[in-house]
Design a protein that fits this description.
The protein is an alpha+beta fold. It contains 13 helices and 17 strands.
Length: 466
């Protein structure tokens, strides 16, 4: 035997051994589907009968796919076209998805079957996870080890304001507030360490508004365990934070209300006595200096009494009569008083009062609201500062805004606004703005604050009367 023939037979045996031991099922089928040869994997997966017993491959094809596979075998065995067909084949008692590669030869075909079950399961699980992520009310996104955004769900668009196209590929720093560079750096280090982590923080939306979040991170790894980045779930807790602050405020109010009743009884009675004696002394003296002192003392007593009057209303439910009123008319009636107050402090008030729909309000309380907000704004400005009082309408709402040109409110103080007895003024009682919040609640309105280096705007929104 020649060396060439020997090598050929040796290589043929190697190829035959390779095909026989191939992990994917492989067989040779005639035009009519009869299996002429099958490897060990094919016999095991499809439970073929003994090699001496001929079997038809079509018997293992799902009835819905038989016509197509019969046509493929009859056609391809006579041609030179290579085809891959996805079909269902019977393995034991189950119908499984396979990719069937058909290679033509003379009067028969070579067929190789790839089990798609695991791939199908993976794809279905992936689709389920994507559906869950898209349906979630929490922002879900993925970051690589450098902090770049790799995925972005629908809730992330809603919470942060960036579309998927705007977010993916950019660094997570776009969500950071000024001054949070170190925090973002620490987060990226945790990602690189493959750490799981949960924390509460504040980020900013696309429009620069802050949003309170509770963030949880978990590492993402590939099938080999290589770290790819982290998945992030960010829950918007802004409303929850406001609710907590409101609960804290109400708890304090309960304490203040109890204290107020004691002060009302224990302090006002002796004040009445002091006031009576002051009136007697004023009538008896002719000394101008003493009369001046008595006058000052009487004014201070009036001031203390006014403070106590505000103080004892804390925490009490107060029924007020509300009627259809024009905010513009109420403010116009107050204009001379407000302008005089501003002129006394060498400041300016501008009125931008547009005609709006009426609102159900208590006129006296709205006057107190405007007066308190105006005086706070004037006191926040330097001489020659300009304060604007404005009315407007939007989406069945009537809006009153008071904007000063002061230096803005710090983030620390912004959180405390509306808290009874909190004041940044040396002689302030901390009750004026608290009363404003109480008035807005009683008149079914909301009070929001916008502040920055160019000043602060208090915006009160009322439902328009029907």
């Amino acid at each position: 035997m020649s060396k060439t023939k020997s090598e050929f037979r040796h290589r043929s045996r190697q190829v035959n051994d390779f095909l026989r031991n191939l992990t994917d099922p492989m067989f040779v089928a005639a035009k009519d589907g009869v299996i002429l040869w099958a490897n060990e994997s094919c016999r095991r997966v499809f439970s073929l009968p003994a090699a001496a017993s001929p079997a038809s491959f079509l018997a293992y094809v799902h009835p819905d796919n038989q016509a197509q596979v019969r046509y493929d075998l009859a056609t391809l065995c006579s041609g030179d076209l290579v085809l891959t067909r996805e079909t269902r084949l019977r393995s034991g008692d189950a119908w499984l998805n396979f990719a069937l590669d058909i290679y033509p030869a003379v009067d028969y075909c070579y067929c190789l079957a790839h089990d798609l079950t695991r791939q199908k399961t993976f794809e279905e699980e992936k689709l389920q996870l994507l559906s869950v992520a898209e349906a979630s009310l929490d922002a879900i996104y993925a970051l690589d080890t450098d902090g770049h955004i790799r995925s972005w769900n629908r809730a992330a668009v809603s919470i942060f304001g960036y579309t998927e196209e705007e977010a993916i590929g950019r660094n997570v720093e776009i969500l950071a507030l000024p001054g949070q560079k170190e925090e973002i750096g620490a987060v990226i280090q945790l990602i690189r360490q493959g750490a799981s982590y949960g924390y509460e923080t504040v980020r900013q939306r696309k429009n620069r508004e802050p949003v309170s979040l509770f963030i949880t991170m978990a590492p993402i790894r590939d099938s080999q365990g290589v770290l790819l980045g982290a998945s992030v779930v960010a829950r918007d807790i802004t409303a929850l934070q406001k609710q907590k602050l409101e609960m804290t405020r109400l708890d304090r109010l309960n304490t203040f209300a109890e204290l107020a009743s004691v002060i009302s009884h224990e302090v006002r009675n002796p004040m009445t006595t002091i006031g009576g004696f002051l009136q007697m002394l004023q009538k008896k003296t002719r000394d101008k200096k003493q009369l001046e002192y008595f006058s000052i003392m009487a004014e201070e007593l009036k001031r203390v009494n006014a403070i106590l009057s505000e103080f004892i209303t804390i925490g009490r439910t107060k029924e007020v009569k509300r009627e259809k009123q024009s905010l513009k008319s109420i403010i116009i009636s107050m204009a001379p008083l407000l302008e005089a107050d501003a002129a006394y402090q060498s400041k300016i008030i501008k009125f931008n009062l547009k005609d709006t729909r009426e609102a159900f309000v208590n006129a006296d309380e709205i006057r107190q609201l405007v007066l308190n907000l105006t005086r706070n704004g004037l006191e926040a400005m330097d001489p020659n500062g300009i304060l604007e009082i404005k009315t407007a309408s939007k989406d069945n709402k009537v809006i009153l805004s008071v904007k000063d040109s002061g230096h803005g409110i710090t983030e620390e103080n912004l959180e405390k606004l509306g808290t009874a007895f909190f004041s940044t003024k040396e002689s302030g009682t901390g009750l004026g703005l608290y009363v404003c919040y109480e008035i807005t609640q009683r008149n079914n309105a909301s009070l929001n604050v916008l502040t920055g280096a160019d000043g602060t705007t208090f915006m009160v929104t009322f439902p328009a009367a029907v």
